[in-house]
Amino acid sequence: MTSVVIVDDQALVRDGLRLTLELAGIEVVGEAADGDEAVELVVSIRPDVVLMDIRMPRTDGIEATRRIMAAGVPSRVLVLTTFDLDEHVYAALRAGAAGFLLKDAGGDRLVAAVREAAAGETPVAGEVLGRLIDHFVESPLASIAASGVVTALSKRELEVLRLVGAGRSNAEIAGDLFISLATVKSHLRHILAKLGLRDRVQVVVLAHEAGLAGRTSRANPQS
Fold it and tell me: Is residue 151 domain-resident?
């Protein structure tokens, strides 16, 4: 069962999130009202996913996310925000957040995003993905793409990189390439290791920086 810690300074918001998740069979293992409490709780419990509000008293969600990542906790941080292009969202992604979700997204989308994050996906609304890429084009990842590091990848890893850049989920990539979900995850781990990337968000950015996203072809049914 997927485990979640909810971080928000408003008790009513926490109650609503808890109810939605628990009705969907997701276990809420803790709650925090600010970033300091969140870091202590997450480091101790190590949940699968952290639902992290950005604006909170004392320590905000960005700094809390940074501390959680620095502690080496494997939890995936999913940022909750009111505005999809809030500058704080970009800062949270740079700090190590796995994705973000609008607070008015609805119960079904909340549950889906938590499960996607737990599975290693990057929950980011499709209509926002392009704008995120535009924002990151001046990042250090550009030098990675320009330096030709992508040549370190195998043919199949390049196919996976292209599909991730096109916004495809792991399950969709498995179907497109006629390989198992476990094989897709293995290729992604190799891509991250070979290119020195932190997470799927950086893979997406790199695919666009390298001009690879969208240039996909139907592969032969072999891994």
Answer: yes
What residue numbers bound the domain in which 45 lies?
3-125
The two three-digit tokens of residue 210, written as one number: 């390298």
Alpha-carbon span 8 to 10, nearest angstrom: 5
Structure token digits, residue 17: 């999130």
Between CA 9 and CA 74 the distance in angstroms is 23
pTM for this predicted structure: 0.69
Class of residue 202 by CB neighbours under 10 A (exposed 0-12, middle 13-18, buried 19+) = buried
Q: Walk across the sheet containing 76-81 and list its strands.
A: 27-32, 3-7, 49-53, 76-81, 99-102
Within a domain: 131: no
Residues 6 or more apart in contact with residue 94 via CB below 8 angstroms: none
| Residue 36 DSSP class | H
As a whole number of angstroms, the distance between CA 80 and CA 69 comes to 17
| Residue from 88, 158, 168 nearest 121 by CA | 168
Give the model confidence (pLDDT) of 35-83 as tens digits. Answer: 999 999 999 999 999 999 988 888 999 999 999 999 999 999 998 877 6
d(CA 23, CA 114): 13
